[in-house]
């Protein structure tokens, strides 16, 4: 096995629902779609409750209000093309404290690793939020049946040591597990992580331990 050639403590951070809260954005895309059909849907709080209680996807939630396959396809296309548009990215809210991230970046190599369809939109949002300058590497990867984060983590592990990945989903944990890097979860995602996963309430609580 190839040994790491650079002893450089590296923290890899997920973006959506780890550094920023995207739940309102997701809801607003769905709500705007149904407004065009003059269909009233649940309010934001009940949207969250439905998804959490039923472990439901956005499509599962939207399907309650759809009457046929044509509407379903229209919804899927609308969501896919609009979810990363400026009109809806504006609903995202920072979770991470920027000054805290800045302090951590002085002693750790920070890498952003997130799933997005449009790299340029992700990078622009990162800049607008005042976060981009603190990351030495940025990866926005397209969604795929096989989690593309795994290969990036493996490559990082071969270059730097130690590598720790922080994320909010079970798929983040699985990517870290397959690549054999340390993982810590944050409880700012929609769905709870397993009890056997070490978690923090949010990313700030984790970063404070690195000061």
Automatic annotation (TrEMBL):
GO terms for biological process: DNA repair. Its EC number is 3.1.3.18. Coiled coil: none annotated. Pathway: Organic acid metabolism; glycolate biosynthesis; glycolate from 2-phosphoglycolate: step 1/1. It catalyses: 2-phosphoglycolate + H2O = glycolate + phosphate. GO terms for molecular function: phosphoglycolate phosphatase activity. It holds the Pfam family HAD_2. Belongs to the HAD-like hydrolase superfamily. CbbY/CbbZ/Gph/YieH family. This is phosphoglycolate phosphatase. It comes from Empedobacter falsenii. The lineage of its organism: Bacteria, Pseudomonadati, Bacteroidota, Flavobacteriia, Flavobacteriales.
